Amino acid sequence: MYTLTGLKLKNPIILAAGILGTTGASLCRVAREGGAGGVVTKSIGPMPKTGHSNPSMVKLDCGFLNAMGLPNPSYPSFLQELEIAKKDSGVPVIASIFGGNPTEFKEVAEGLLPAKPDAFELNVSCPHAEGYGAAVGSNPCLVEAITAAVKDTVNVPVWVKLTPNVSDITCIGNAAESGGADAVVAINTLKGMVIDIESGYPVLGNRSGGLSGKAVKPVAVKCVYDLYTALEIPVIGVGGVSSWQDAVEMMMAGAAAVQVGSAVYDRLDIFSEISTGIEAFLQRKGYSDVKELIGLAHEMV
After folding, report:
1. Fewest CB atoms less than 10 Å from the CB: which of 87, 89, 107, 234?
2. Which residue, among 207, 41, 194, 36, has the nearest Cα to 109 in the 3D structure?
3. Which residues are catalytic?
């Protein structure tokens, strides 16, 4: 059993937001068949959103580029799915939420409380939803106010997911910590774009989107490394993790736990595979606990 911000996880490998998190059944499947230690829902907002027009996702040699636009049914319509996940997944269920200001974040958090999520993850980092995500998450004062508003509303842990599309991610991390965040999650996707050279048109319906997958891992590792130095609260690493080696690297940079997103497209049991690989690594290196890996790279400087 692994403890993170008071949550008891069977392992520190968690499903990232936006991947197989739109229904309670899919969240249960990731937990039970995939072996995830915890699951994060698709980001849920104050009102229904259809998202951007297709094509909204394209596979690249180095990962994925997506511009979904935060499609969601709104929090009243998601309550039942969250209740199913809570009842049948057997692991902590973290509700990812978004809004355009502190009042909207508070409204969504309050509206989902009847389903009793184990924690909330505040999405202040989506790079392709106008008025939401990174549009608010690049403002330290707003991040602090949003975090404080949700913390005042709920009595469960609050995680804040940070955008890498800023000049200094530690500034935003410090703002989240000042607002009362129990942990930060780093990172969300990087801004990116693909153009079809035959037509000259951008491939995505929204023109630009967010890059995920293997290409972003070095960026994520650096952000985690910097945040670990700057903050007192735990850092949860996410971005390009597709193997146990990637997860170990993220932990050595300072991640207290690791989320997996794009790699789920290749295989659902990636969580069990990573967890088993980490256990074998610990035995081979003579470590008694996975927590001995956290921040290890900082001791080597």
Report:
1. 87
2. 41
3. 126
| CB neighbours of residue 154 within 10 Å | 17
Report the top-level CATH class of 2-299. alpha beta
CA distance 269 to 106: 35
Residue 2, beta-bridge partner list: 9
Q: Quick check: 166 and 225 in contact, CB under 8 A?
A: no
Residue in the structure block whose two tokens are 């971005």:
239
Residue 256, SS3 per DSSP: strand
pLDDT at 125: 87
> What's the pLDDT at 301?
65
Contact 39, 185 (CB under 8 A): no
d(CA 300, CA 21): 38
Q: pTM value?
A: 0.96
Calculate ∠ Cα 167-209-53, nearest 5°: 150
Q: Which residues pair with 255 in a beta bridge?
A: 235
**Tens digit of pLDDT for each residue in 158-184?**
999 999 999 999 999 999 999 999 999
